[in-house]
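Running this now, will post back.
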Amino acid sequence: ALIFLYKKIDALIRKPLLGSLHEKYIFVTGCDSGFGKTTAKHLDSLGVHVIAGCFTEEGRKNLKEECSSRLNVVHLDITDIKTIEKAFEFVKDLI
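Update: finished.
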């Protein structure tokens, strides 16, 4: 009985506070490859609306082909203020 009680309390404590992921938008940067791309694809597979920031056209194209229509891709170079401003406007228009 104690193990059952422990498991129930542990599950309640670990329960995410985000609510329904299907109603959320998450912006992920560095989505051309590596951790960013893996994160964007995983979130998309969970039903989250993903806004993926990619540096290259090839990265944007590949990610769009590999994910659902919930995923939106935007050009983003975090060292260039113009692309950051354009990405910001894209997000404002999307949401």
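The chain has a mean pLDDT of 88. More later if anyone needs it.
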